[in-house]
Design a protein that fits this description.
The protein has about 900 residues and is of the alpha/beta class. It folds into five domains: about 190 residues, P-loop containing nucleotide triphosphate hydrolases (Rossmann fold, 3-Layer(aba) Sandwich); about 100 residues, Ribosomal protein L1/L10, rRNA-binding domain (Ribulose 1,5 Bisphosphate Carboxylase/Oxygenase); about 100 residues, ABC transporter ATPase domain-like (Helicase, Ruva Protein, domain 3, Orthogonal Bundle), CATH 1.10.8; about 170 residues, 3-Layer(aba) Sandwich (Rossmann fold), CATH 3.40.50; about 130 residues, ABC transporter ATPase like fold (Up-down Bundle). Helix content is about 35%, strand content about 20%. The chain is built from 34 helices and 31 strands. Strands 5-17-18-3-19-20 form a six-stranded mixed sheet. A six-stranded mixed sheet has the order 25-28-29-23-30-31, with helices on both faces. The longest helix has 23 residues. The chain is globular.
Length: about 900
Amino acid sequence: MSRHELIIEGARQNNLRNVSLRLPHNTFITITGVSGSGKSSLAFDTIFAEGQWRFIESLSTYARLFLEKLDRPDVDSIRNIRPAIALEQKNPVKTSRATVGTSTEIYDYLRLLYAKIARPHCHKCGKMLKAWSPSSTAQELIDKYSGQKAMILFDCDDNAEGLQKKGFHRYREKAATGYEVILDRLVIKDEPRLADSLETAWEHGGGNVKVEIVREAPENNELLRFSKELKCIDCGIEIMTPQPLLFSFNHPLGACPECKGFGNSLEYAEASIVPDKELSLEKGAIEPWSKPSNRWWYRQFAKAAKANGIKLNVPYKDLPEETRELIFKGSDDFYGMKEFFEYLESRRYKLHVRVFLSRYRRGVTCRTCGGGRLRPEALAYTIGGLNIAQLSAKSITQMDEYFARLSLTEQEQEMSSEILRQIRLKVGFFMRVGITYLTLNREAKTLSGGESQRINLANQLSSKLTGTLYVLDEPTVGLHPRDVSRISDILKELADAGNTVIVVEHDKAIIDLSDWIVELGPGGGGNGGRILFSGRREDFLRTDTLTAQYMNKAAGIPVPVLRRKGSGKRLSIRGAHGNNLKHIDVTVPLQTLTCITGVSGSGKSTIVEDTIYRALAQFFKMEFENPQPFGSIDGLEHVKGVRIIDQHPIGKSPRSNPVTYIKAFDHIRKVFAEQPQSRTFGYAPGHFSFNTEGGRCPACQGAGFQKLEMYFFEDLYITCEECGGRRYKPEILSVTYNGKNIHEVLDLTVDEAIVFFKNIPPLQNKLRLMSTVGLGYLRLGQPATTLSGGEAQRLKICEELGVLRRRDIIYILDEPTVGLHPDDIRKLLAVLNELVHAGNTVLLVEHNLDVIKSADWVIDIGPEGGDKGGSIVAEGTPEDIAKVEESHTGRFLREYLA
């Protein structure tokens, strides 16, 4: 047995067919295969799961109480496994408190840096502050005022008699109370007298000293103030001594007292309260007052409207600003929107009231901290002219440039050299993984799964571990082809450092750069789970497996012979300038397949999802969220609707599954209700639903498992003892169709069910749609919570294909090829083309070159990410894009069009 190999014997997890293989350690390994072939089952559910299980079992009993209980994978043995780390395409962050800065630990280093060397300012007048001592005051005077006459002064609240008793005979009365003592008159020189006078003034003035520089004309005298505290004497404002917690928005010491460190607050927004400004007040412009339960509020307002000069029959958009303000604030004659919401706020203990109120509130930037999340005292500290919030608003690229230019004193450099080294090191790692456009203040929960994974990859690079097993899920997701080589270099670097790197990937460039390749298949679901190849890359390219055929171009996706011109009508959005967009004009030819391309962070999602989609959704009254700013939009009359087919889960409950989502389960239940045994006992379709009473197991209520509350321990989920996990009552399970009961049917894969229900055309048609989009391997009853984002997105495409009587709809998809093998992409393109042939427009944000070359029209945005992006680099057919030298997309597209 070799210690330099990971040896797996008899793996049967999910659809794996008793798989055995050997993988060399300290190598870069890619596992590939069609969708559902068992790649994740092998990499994550077997190899990584075993590594995690062994780690947890090695801990003490007490430590295991606080960790999730893991099931051991179904495998005979795994030998020579290393400590395992999984970097998945999931973003687990739900809180708004986590940012890119806190996730990467760069912000933690910035807090240390600001606590060490930041320069304080008065947050009211902006004057730079310093905590002075007698010696530093003397040095300041010698450096700037040497040879000039001066008076050393301090303030004292004693009366004249008290001052004289203390030996102070020269003083002058202050404007308010007390006296200003003139301790000494001298010429500023580097002599003991200056230091002695300052020491005395410091002692009697409570750490506050004034020095008046005497000029020939008294009106030209200059008054200097020195204090031992960080205090602005002009404004009377004292700021806190710097410490790392002062710069933490997750701690009460540093968090803005107004927004509690979130950077924004919820306020009632006019756009939500009055969604349609074309309506008049009497026609229901104020949406919350149009509800039957709230009509009293409108009636009392309408009675007083005339007396207050408010016209009820005029469109809301034509009402003057002062009238709108009056409607919101109210008057002595009527209650306004402000009082209405205050009344409802007092009834927030009711769930339906909280839900109602949430519809009209929107996050607005905190007026106190300006979105900086910190209290004013913390934002008053700067390094290189920037406070920590301003520095966090810079992209990774800008931050790298900032620290390269930063000029520090010798003392500051000495105090911060190690902190700066760590910051520059981490920034360098994040530049390497291709997320240079991200800013540190971006909320971590807004990151895509791919961005989150690349942050974790950069963190692992900086940790410099060895002897570790890394398992990654499609690290190229969201990456432009230009940036893929960076990721492959990093993965090889991890392997060369003495780690085993296992990647689940379809990208040809990653596969081509791997040391070792494993292909599973030949199909998905029950047709997969077998090892088709395991060996070195050079041997893999000589095989005839499906992936190898795509790699050596024996198989491929052909370039379309003709490009569709569309209907001749266009949707144009002009002057888009949200986020990093540079006032661009984007025109989408209708009834075409159009691709928006560009490097990561170039502005693709901003123009497609945040501008075009939101503008259309608002026009069709689908949602209230405002689009990113733009000038105008033309062509709305040619569009009848918009659908965004995203990768969000299709259900939050395990009860939801693929066939319930596409409405195929209704047909299945109807088939079982029509069987002779069902008719005999009066079983209706509802008896075959696990979501309603009648036929479902009463013990687990159709879930198939029961939850045991363990109180001080984690809750346990065990298979229901009454139904054995089959969800239904025994009498319902006794009803069969073609020899299978309802539970056995739900355990079929989609492809198996197509054959099984060959005599039920309506059901078969719905299932064929799932197979067409590459989901034939899914089980009919598979819980929706177990589906990946890509699988959820393709299910949504199925739903739309099922209602193709619609025309003139714009379908928007963001990277639909995620998780797809090249052969599955070929199938997906056929489906997308079907949507276009039916008279619709498909608008894609995509990096996959096979999809881009198959598009009718391409709009390339860039040229780079972040502030260096946001412009249109090229637009036209794929052939047009390939001719543009400045286009990164065009450069890579040439090979695919050849």
